């Protein structure tokens, strides 16, 4: 028989394993199955994770194949049960008589499985795949289908599937060897030596007619496949937790033509220690049960601490993640954190660093708060110290303090909830903490004090009525402290605030519910230290008044000073008695006590008050309040929206004004009125519910401006229209611009300035030969309109009149002038020349027909006319500036009267002269202090005459005189070194 040995290597989490796989050339190829399974075992796929370190078989290999086919692919369904760290194995074997190449591929739930090994022998081929079921995709598979694709022809194929749990990829394994027999009649194989400890799996296989007759080592059988496929007769997998040396031997009967046996030992996973509970114990603690939590604890595991003074009793492995063990901490055990080590029987160990702490007896250093008053109930006191355990309890020295509970916070902090009796002695108290672990107690001396509680003797006022709000109650007593709070017994009294005055007085601001029970109440004062004092029956809740009806029960918006009778019970005379109405817009002017069942309220209702029902509340002097719900109604009053006409002049008389609005009512007392003074309403006439006519007279001195109009109905309801009417004054006309035009001049826009102009105003001139266009009222002071002066318009001054729509008239006398349409003439200019660079020079222009609006201009560029002043019909004065770069030579002068007539020009009546230049001085320097020095100035363009002057820049040089020598030379007196400026005038 032919035998092949191949090597397969797999690296898992850094652990490399190379194992031999034995193949046969006959149908006994199925022996490959247990050998491949052993490959996975060698590579650490099976790890102990239960208390015995056993790998658990979820679903074993069955006695018959789950997938078979004589040709083509294989398929089947395999649903895996739940469990930790699951491993899925698929094994396929196929025969091909013609020896052609076959390849396999397998998927589970649509996800490709990992091919672990593939072997061939002659015409046989076998392959094994694995899927670690916590992998992405495997765990989220879409179905339970297994599909094996076979590329190449075959004459028969079978497939098997199995799954295991508690399998880890990271744990080491130990190979214990194996036997393989070919063409032998040997009927016994083994024994194979198993390592002590761990978990053993062995795999067997037999060919031809064989029967396995013994398994004396009591291994758990996971599968025992018997089939007539090919020559394979029997194979399977067994496992066992090994606590002592267990060496399997397998015995066969019959003609054993081919047989195999292999054994591996799975070392249990290395244990890990994560925590202990309790994780802290005091020196001297004895036989305290400690629970150790972690992972991979195996049966028979041992526990140790890194201090010989910490000893352990019998170890109980509860599960792979939990161990319990009695622990005794010696009196001299080292204080602080200690390591805990768990060692499995296979020698694997794990240590939890610092997971257990040893400390001494507790100590108490302080309490917070460190003082509480007599009568304090359920107060949380923080006790600070060292070495506290979760089992600790606290106690207080003396009597009168009850510890309701002790809560462990940390090794340095506990919370004790205490109640102090009202008669507990006031003094310092010791606080003791007992860890209840037999290792002693710790006491803080006088770290807590019981203080005297407050007392309550009386209140002032000592009563208030139901419904009273925000009432200050003065509480008298003793031992009050800043921050004290007050409370009242029973329900229905809310303390809004408590104000500390001194040790004998606090003030409580209270609100008493309308439904609060009447009668006596206790008053309690609680200090910040929780000390409590109570005054028994020192305050009384009185019955509140009741409101049953009001008469009249309605009034309209806008009425004032209306007397309303309120009927009810329990009304009390005195300061503080008051009636009020819900909502806004109703003012109670006064409340008058009539009897215990009757009050009178004088009210005013604003025009803006919301119409509808209102509650009426009566408040007694003791603050007690009673309300009549919906006992009064505000009716809608009249409303004023507009007037027509909406303005009239001062001094107007018997003017009919239509008032428009809503809610007007006919009858005696219907009246209209206007705000301010100076408007007399002669009569008010009802037209309809939306219209009245008021006949008015406006005094001549009535103030101008907008006025409110008020309509009062016969029932007193009033409504006001704000600013709906205006008292106006006649307009005034101050000026027109332009204010003159010549006869027979075309259309020109004239601006009229004044005051009191109204939209729609009209304009007129006192000459029909002055025609006007459309009037534009720009604002109250400005009107613009087109004006045409005809050839027949009268010469001279004219009046301009503005008439408003309300009849107001204003006239500007002589504000517009009509001139003869005559062209001005220009005959001369004096002086008739000026040099380049001159500024602010007055030039007299002489001619004829000049008007007061006339302006002058000079031809060419470089001459700026700063102003033109009218002197007479034959003379104007033009103030000019000639630019330094103005062209020299003759200029024409033009005068325009700006009244629409043609301008007049004097040709070449003015000349621009060239300006002088200075080139040097001789001598060109003089000393400081020199006087009467003649300096010759040389240049060009010098001109003899008045105004010829030389000057020096800076200060300190005085020019005594300037003498003209020639057009190129001047002489002057000066001293100093400066620039020289020559000014020549002509």
What does this structure look like?
- The protein is mainly beta.
- Helix content is 1%, strand content 58%.
- The chain contains 1 helix and 84 strands.
- The strands form 21 sheets. Strands 3, 4, 6, 9, 10 and 12 form a 6-stranded antiparallel sheet that branches. A 5-stranded antiparallel sheet has the order 13-20-15-18-17, with helices on one face.
- A hairpin with a 2-residue loop joins strand 67 and strand 68 (782-789).
- The longest helix is centred in the first third of the chain and has 11 residues, at 32-42.
- The radius of gyration is 62 Å and the shape is extended.
- The termini are far apart.
- Mean pLDDT is 83; it is low at 1-54, 120-124, 171-175, 179-183 and 228-232.
**Count of β-strands:** 84
| Sheet having the most strands | 6 strands, antiparallel
Helix content range: under 10%
Determine Rg (CA atoms, Å): 62 Å
Uncertain segments are 1-54, 120-124, 171-175, 179-183, 228-232
Structural class of the secondary structure composition?
mainly beta
Content of β-strand? over 45%
Total of DSSP H or I helical runs spanning 4+ residues: 1
What general form does the structure show? extended
Euclidean distance between termini CA atoms: 148 Å
Whole-number average pLDDT? 83
Notable features of this structure?
986 residues; six-stranded antiparallel sheet; 84 strands; mainly beta; five-stranded antiparallel sheet; extended; 1 helix
């Amino acid at each position: 028989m032919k035998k092949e040995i191949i090597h397969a290597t797999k690296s898992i989490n850094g652990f490399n394993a190379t194992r031999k796989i034995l193949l046969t050339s006959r149908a006994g190829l199925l022996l490959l199955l247990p050998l491949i399974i052993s490959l996975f075992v060698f590579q650490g796929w099976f790890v102990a994770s239960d208390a015995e370190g056993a790998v658990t078989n979820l679903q074993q290999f069955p006695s018959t194949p789950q997938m078979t086919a004589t040709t083509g692919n294989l398929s089947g369904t395999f649903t895996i049960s739940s469990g930790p760290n699951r491993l899925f194995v698929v094994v396929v074997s196929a025969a091909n008589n013609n020896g052609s190449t076959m390849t396999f591929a397998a998927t589970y739930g649509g996800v490709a499985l990992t091919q672990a090994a593939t072997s061939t022998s002659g015409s046989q081929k076998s392959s094994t795949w694995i899927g670690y079921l916590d992998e992405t995709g495997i765990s989220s598979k879409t179905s339970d289908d297994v599909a094996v694709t076979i590329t190449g022809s075959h004459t028969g194929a079978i497939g098997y599937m199995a799954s295991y749990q508690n399998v880890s990829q990271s744990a080491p394994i130990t190979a214990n060897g194996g036997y393989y027999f070919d063409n032998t009649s040997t009927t016994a194989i083994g024994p194979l030596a198993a390592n002590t400890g761990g978990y053993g799996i062995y795999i067997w296989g037999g060919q031809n007619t064989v029967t396995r007759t013994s398994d004396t080592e009591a291994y758990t059988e996971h599968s025992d496949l018997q089939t007539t496929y090919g020559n394979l007769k029997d194979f399977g997998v067994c496992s066992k937790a090994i606590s002592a040396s267990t060496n399997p031997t397998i015995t066969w009967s019959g003609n054993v033509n081919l047989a195999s046996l292999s054994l591996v030992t799975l070392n249990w996973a290395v244990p890990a220690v994560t925590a202990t509970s309790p994780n802290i114990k005091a020196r001297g603690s004895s036989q305290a049960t400690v629970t150790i939590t972690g992972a991979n604890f195996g049966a028979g595991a041992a526990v140790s601490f890194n201090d010989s003074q910490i000893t352990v009793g019998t170890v109980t492995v509860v599960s792979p993640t939990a161990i319990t063990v009695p622990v005794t901490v010696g009196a001299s055990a080292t204080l602080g954190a200690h390591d805990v080590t768990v060692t499995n029987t296979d020698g694997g160990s794990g240590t939890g660093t610092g997971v257990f702490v040893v400390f001494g007896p507790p100590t108490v250093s302080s309490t917070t708060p460190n003082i509480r008053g007599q009568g304090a109930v359920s107060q949380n006191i923080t006790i600070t110290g060292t070495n506290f355990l979760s089992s600790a309890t606290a106690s207080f020295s003396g009597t009168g303090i009850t510890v309701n509970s002790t809560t462990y916070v940390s090794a340095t902090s506990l919370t004790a909830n205490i109640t102090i009796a009202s008669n507990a002695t006031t003094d310092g108290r010791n606080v003791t903490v007992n860890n209840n672990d037999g290792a002693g107690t710790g006491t803080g001396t006088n770290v807590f004090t019981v203080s005297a509680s407050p007392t309550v003797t009386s209140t002032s006022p000592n009563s208030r009525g139901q419904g009273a709000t925000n009432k200050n109650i003065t509480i008298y007593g003793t031992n009050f402290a800043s921050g004290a709070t007050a409370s009242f017994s029973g329900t229905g009294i809310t303390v809004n605030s408590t104000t500390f005055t001194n040790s004998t007085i606090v003030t409580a601001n209270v609100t008493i519910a309308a439904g609060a029970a009447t009668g006596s109440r206790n008053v309690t004062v609680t200090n910040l230290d929780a000390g409590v004092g109570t005054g028994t029956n020192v305050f009384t809740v009185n019955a509140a008044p009741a409101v049953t009806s009001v008469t009249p029960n309605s009034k309209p918006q806008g009425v004032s000073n209306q007397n309303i009778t309120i009927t009810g019970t329990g009304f009390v005379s005195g300061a503080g008695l008051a009636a009020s109405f819900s909502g806004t817009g109703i003012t109670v002017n006064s409340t008058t006590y009539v009897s215990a069942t009757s009050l009178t309220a004088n009210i005013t209702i604003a025009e803006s008050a919301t119409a509808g029902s209102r509650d009426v509340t009566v408040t007694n002097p003791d603050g007690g309040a009673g309300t009549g719900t919906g006992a009064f109604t505000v009716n809608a009053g009249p409303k004023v929206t507009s007037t027509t006409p909406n303005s009239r002049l001062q001094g107007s008389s018997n003017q009919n004004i239509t008032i428009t609005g809503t809610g007007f009512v006919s009858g005696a007392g219907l009246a209209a009125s206007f705000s301010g003074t100076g408007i007399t309403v002669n009569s008010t006439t009802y037209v309809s519910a939306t219209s009245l006519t008021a006949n008015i007279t406006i005094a001549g001195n009535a103030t101008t401006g907008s006025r409110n109009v008020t309509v009062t109905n016969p029932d007193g309801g009033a409504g006001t229209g704000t600013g709906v009417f205006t008292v106006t004054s006649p307009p005034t006309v101050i000026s027109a611009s332009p204010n003159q035009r010549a006869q027979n001049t075309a259309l020109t826009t004239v601006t009229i300035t004044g005051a009191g102009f109204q939209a729609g105003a009209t304009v007129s001139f006192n000459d029909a030969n002055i025609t006007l266009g459309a009037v534009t009222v720009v604002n109250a002071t400005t009107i613009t309109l087109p004006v045409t002066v005809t050839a027949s318009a009268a010469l001279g001054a004219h009046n301009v009149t503005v008439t408003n729509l309300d009849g107001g008239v204003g006239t500007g006398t002589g504000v517009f002038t009509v001139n003869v349409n005559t062209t001005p003439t220009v005959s001369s200019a004096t002086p008739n020349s000026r040099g380049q660079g001159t500024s602010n020079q007055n030039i007299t222009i002489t001619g004829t027909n000049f008007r007061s609006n006339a302006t002058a201009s000079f031809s060419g560029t470089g001459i700026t006319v700063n102003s033109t002043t009218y002197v007479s019909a034959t003379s104007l004065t033009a103030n000019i500036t000639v630019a330094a770069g103005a062209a020299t030579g003759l200029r024409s002068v033009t005068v325009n009267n700006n009244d629409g007539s043609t301008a007049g020009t004097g040709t070449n009546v003015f000349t621009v002269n060239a300006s002088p230049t200075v080139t040097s001085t001789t001598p060109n320097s003089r000393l400081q202090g020199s006087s009467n020095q003649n300096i010759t100035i040389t240049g060009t363009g010098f001109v003899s005459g008045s105004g010829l002057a030389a000057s020096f820049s800076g200060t300190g040089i005085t020019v005594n005189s300037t003498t003209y020598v020639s057009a190129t030379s001047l002489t002057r007196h000066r001293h100093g070194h400066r620039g020289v400026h020559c000014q020549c005038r002509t």
